[in-house]
Amino acid sequence: MRASNVTVRRRLFAALIVGTAIFLALVVRLAYVQIWLGPELSDKAEDSWRRDIPVTAKRGEILDRNGAQLAYNISSPTVMAIPAQIQDPQATAAKLAAALDTSQERIYKQLTTRASSAYIKPAGRKITQEKAREIRDMKLPGIVVTEDNKRYYPFGSLAAHVLGFTGIDNQGLTGIELKYNRTLTGIGGSISYLADAAGKSMPGSTDEYKKPLDGLNLQLTIDSNIQAIMERELDQAMLKYQPNHVIAIAMDPNNGEILAMGSRPGYEPGNYKAYPVENYNRNLPIWMTYEPGSTFKIITLAAALEEKKVSLTEGFFDPGAIEVAGARLRCWKRGGHGSETFLQVVENSCNPGFVVMGQRLGKEKLFEYIYNFGFGKKTGIDLGGEENGIMFKPSRVGPVELATTSFGQGVSVTPIQQITAVSAAVNGGKLFKPHVAKAWYNPDNGALVEEMKPELVRQVISEATSKQVRETLESVVANGTGRNAFIDGYRVGGKTGTAQKVVNGRYSASEHIVSFIGFAPADDPKVVVYAAVDNPQGIQFGGLVAAPLVKGIMEDTLRYMKVPPRKDQMDRKYVYGDTKIVEVPNLVGMSITDIYETMNMNFQLAKSGTGGTVISQVPKAGTRVEQGSTIRIYLSDASPPESGKPQAQ
To answer: So what family is this one in (predicted)?
Structure first.
C-alpha cells in the first residue's frame, strides 16, 4: 500500500513537471508570437483586410526645345466599383448604364467580378466633370469616382508622328510616348481602407493615401515653330502635287538634334482612331525605304574628294551614256552634257561622271565610305520603327552594281539615314547619332534631371574635304539643278534627287520619288533640310518639286533662327523662265518724270498722294525683290525727309 502511494506521488510529480514544462513552453511561444511576431502578423492581418483604390500618377509632360507644351495631362474622372460593397448589382448596373449610355449587361459583369476593385470601362473611363458630378450625386454604394488623367495635345496634329499617342490606361502606344513610356508614366499611388470578409468598411478604420510619383517631364530637340513651318509646306505640297505621301526632316548638322520631322498624310494624336491605321502606325521619315537617286551622289562625291580620285577642275566629256560591262547607263539629259568639268558634273547631276568617280574609287573603297556614312544599318534614333535600308552585299557587287550605286540606283535608304549622312558630309566630316530627346526635368520643381549629350559616331571625312563638298553643293544651287532652292541673301547648298519607283519588281516609267536635301549657310551650316515627295502628279523632277519645298522650309527657318544673311553669296545663274532678284532703287526726292526718264525700271509703280515729288517708298531702297514687283511711292509737294540723294540706275 505504501509502495503504491509512492508510485502515485511520483507519477503526480512527473505529471506536474511535464505540465509545468508544457505551460512554460506555451508561455514562451505566446510571448514569441505576441512580442516577436506580433507586428508582422498584425501587418499581414491588416494587409488581408486592406483594400486599395488606385490613384494614377500624372504622366510627364512633353515640351519642345523652347519649353512649349506639346503634350500634357488634363484631369479626367474615372468610375470605379468596389464589388463587395455593392448592395444591389442589378439596380446599380441599370443606373450606371443609363448615365454612361452603355450596355447594362457589360456593367453588371464588371460589378460582380471577384476583385477588390474594378474600372467601369470603357464608358466610365476619362469622363467629363459634369458626368462625374452626376454619378457622385447618385450616391450608389460601392461606386466611387476617382481622379484620372487624360493626355492632351494642344497643337492638334503638329509633330504627331514624333509624339505618338497613349492608350486608355495612359500607356504609350507609338512615338516618343512609347519610346520613353516608363519614365513618363511615373509610379501610381492609392487610397486604401480596411474591410471585413464581406468587403464592408471596418468601423473606426481610417483611409490611407499613398501619393503617386509623377513621371518626369521630357524636353525634345523639336522646335515647334520650325515644325509648324515644315508642316505648312507639307500641306501645300499635298494640295499642289497630290502625291501618295510627302516627308521632311530638319536637323542641326552639328550635333544630330532633330529640329522638325513630319509627313503627310497625318493625324491627330488625341483622336487617332478617326484615321486610317496607316496614317499613324508608320513614321515615314524613319520607316520608309526607297532608292535615293541623285541625293546619294553626295556620298560618292565626298569619298572621291577624300581619296583624291577626282579634281573638280578636271575635264570630262559626257556623250549621254556610258558602257559598263555590256550595260548602257544613260544620263538624265538626252544627248548628254558634252564637255564639262567635274564641278559641272555635280552641278548637272551627270550620271556618267559619277560612274567614273565610282570606278576610280573601286568597290571596296566606295562601300567602305557608304557604310561609314551610316547606310545599311539603323541610325539608332530614339524612335521606334526605324528600318535598315538595303545595300548590295560586297560579294554581289560587280561593275554594273558599282556603277549604279555611284549615282544612287539599286540601293535602298531611309530619309533619316540620308539627312544624317549629308550632315556629316557638310559639318566637317563628323557623323552624329540623330536624336529627338533633349533633357529630363523634375515635374515638381523644374530641376534638370538628365541631359542628352550629342553622340559622335565617327569622323568620316576631313574638314578640308567637307569644305570642298559644301562649296560644290553651293554651286549646285547657284548654277545647277538645285536653282529652285536658291534663297536670296543666304548661301545655300544642296542636291536634287529623282528616282524611279520599283513596282512589282520593275522600275516604273511613270512613278517617281523626287527629293532634295539642302543646308545653309553653306559656309557654316546651321540647318539641313531633307524632303521627299512620293509620286507627285504631273511634274516628276526633284529640282522642280522638292527643291521649292525645301526652300520654303529653309527660308522661314533661317529667318526664325535669326541667322544673318551673307554678303558673299554666290551669284545665281539665271536661265529662261527664271525670275531675277533685283535691288530696289532709291526713288525718294525724284519726280515721276525723273523716274521714267532716268531709271531703268525693273518694277511696277503704284502711286499714293498728290504732288510732284516722292517723299517715301515701300519697299525701302536696297531691299531685294523679284523683278517686276510693285513699288508704292508716296507723293507730295513738300520736301522729302533727309534720306540721301536720289540715285539713278
So the answer is: Belongs to the transpeptidase family.
Q: Are 499 and 513 in contact (CB under 8 A)?
A: yes
**Cα(514)–Cα(329) distance, integer angstroms:** 20
List residues with catalytic annotation: 294
**Helices (H) and strands (E) in the chain — how many of each?**
20, 28
Report how far residue 164's alpha carbon sits from residue 168's, in angstroms, rounded to the nearest whole number. 14
User: Which residue, chain included where needed, has cell 484615321?
Assistant: 275
Which residues make beta-bridge pairs with 519? 493, 528
pLDDT in tens, 204-229: 556 666 788 889 999 999 999 999 99
Q: Is residue 210 classed exposed, middle or buried when 0-12, 13-18 and 19+ CB atoms within 10 A define those classes?
A: middle
**Residue among 323, 383, 11 at smallest CA distance from 162:** 383
Contacts of 582 by beta carbon, 8 Å cutoff, 6+ apart = 602, 603, 624, 625, 626, 627
DSSP structural state of residue 265: S
CA-based R_g, the chain, Å: 37
Q: How far is 331 from 353, CA to CA, in rounded Å?
A: 9
Structure confidence by residue, pLDDT tens digits, 223-277: 999 999 999 999 999 999 999 999 999 999 999 999 999 999 999 999 999 999 9
Q: Which of 116-130, 136-150, 245-259, 627-641 has the highest mean pLDDT?
A: 245-259
Cis peptide before 443 (omega within 30 of 0): no
pLDDT at 523 exceeding the cut of 90: yes
Q: What is the 3-state secondary structure (H, E, C) of 470-500?
A: HHHHHHHHHHCCCHHHCCCCCCCEEEEEEEE
**Which residues does residue 413 pair with via DSSP β-bridges, in sequence order?**
290
pLDDT digits (tens, 9 = 90+) for 319-349: 999 999 999 999 988 889 999 999 999 999 9
CA pair distance 41, 270, nearest whole angstrom: 48
Got the DSSP string for 77-106? -EEEE-GGG-S-HHHHHHHHHHHHTS-HHH
Specify the length of the chain in residues.
649
Which three cell numbers mark 467?
Answer: 569644305
Q: Are 469 and 306 in contact (CB under 8 A)?
A: no
Residue 262 CA to chain centroid, in angstroms?
Answer: 7
What number is the average pLDDT over the span 394-421? 93
Per-residue burial over 611-633, b if 16 or more Cβ lie within 10 Å, else e, is: eebbbbbeeebeeebeeebebeb
